[in-house]
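Protein: Glutamate--cysteine ligase
Species: Pseudomonas borbori
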Amino acid sequence: MSDLFSRRLALLGERANLSLLSQCLHGIERECLRVDGDGQLALTPHPVALGSALTHPRITTDYSEALLEFITPAEPDPAITLADLEQIHRFVYSKLDGEYLWSPSMPCALPDEETIPIAEYGSSHIGQLKYIYRKGLALRYGKTMQCIAGIHYNFSLPDSLWPLLQQDEGNTCAARDYQSARYIALIRNFRRYSWLLMYLFGASPALDAGFLRGRPHQLQQLDGDTLYLPYATSLRMSDLGYQSSAQAGLTPCYNDLNSYTDSLRQAVATPYPPYVEIGSKKDGEWLQLNTNILQIENEYYSNIRPKRVTHSGERPIQALMARGVQYIEVRCLDINPFLPLGIDLVEARFLDAFLLFCALQESPPLGGDECHACTDNFLKVVKEGRRPNLHLQHRGQPVALQAWAHQLLDSIQQTASLLDQSHGDQAHSHALQLQRAKIDDASLTPSAQVLAQLQQGESFSQFALRQSKQHADYFRSQTLSAEQQADFEAASARSLREQAELEAREEGDFDSFAAAYQASILALGI
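Structure follows.
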């Protein structure tokens, strides 16, 4: 534990400053597939009763028409965030006709690639842009990979906390630059230590055998329909999940915000020969938005992202460059198939303590060797994190995962205690103790619990459908209040009106709109 870490803890622990940590903001985005009663991918359109996937602030679609995404507001208390998420689930279940929300991250048995429906967003220019972007993703990575679901955890520290730390350090740069630099430092520490999250919360050690479409692999056969790795924690985050040769050279090590935004700007503006060969259009029909390494900056797959709320019509990268980092988005969390929401308050409390540790702990720049070690450690844990006596690389030396995990939890205990002081309870320390038990006993991890279920004779898909139906019963057993239901109904109706208004007032042709959209990234200085 560094002196700087101790000093920051002491500063935030002062009576005058302690209330700041109760002002952190938390938001959750949860993706899940719609399936029919047999656990097959729903081929029905996005239910109109849920509103417009283009304009609804809480209920949208991700890649496929069948891949729902629920978005909570940002709240100071993660318990409220989870309650918001639960309300969304209850409303959606009130509108699903004989369909279910798939409980794990890895998808159900999927139909052939052509049959998987791409999400549609109507005839407006922005709606068409979203659809063509997804056509491009299908072309580049296949539709199967795009059906993987996850949980994104959005987290920010209060804006008033940063000037306090900046003054204490005698840092004289602009306040906005200091805040951005500190969020980027948090991200560097996240890269160093996120293997721990995969061990503790990874929940995808197995998948439906059809997912691999006959591709070669190193997985083992659990039964006729299920593939797995015996010590895996998260096959979703392994090289079986999100992979791209085009993105292989894109490894921002987050040493400052400028280098991060520069690397993404370059990728969005640099042609990639295999995509150039395909072209953007064929016979006048759009195939992909462009032939560059990335069509848009959000195509870059990363475990964590620096974020800033965008203005209307603004690109994420423009918002970051104009106003700096506002919060971070953790993107590597599996959906826990044993939990109705896929995440619970214990996990959220631990994440807060972990992320605060990443923010306050010293975070030197990542050199090439350490950058590679971070990636290697992460990939090792997702594929064999529960292997007895597994070793990782730390400061160029092998270290036992168990020993390093306990050492990290000792440090995170300091931030958990600080959060408990701020909130006047022991919730964060309790959440940490539950994680410590998983380090000592790997059978307590979600990934081990999933395999324990499957080893009793159920296939992955049978287990997942059983969990999905249990969760459906849970959500349907307690309906929303009349007022809550009315609020959701109104939001759905409003979103449909907003989409219709957007389409009615659209001017010009889509090709000009797409060209202007691409030019907006070039105008940033490439």
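Remarks: Residues 3-509 form a domain with the Creatine Kinase; Chain A, domain 2 fold (CATH 3.30.590.20).
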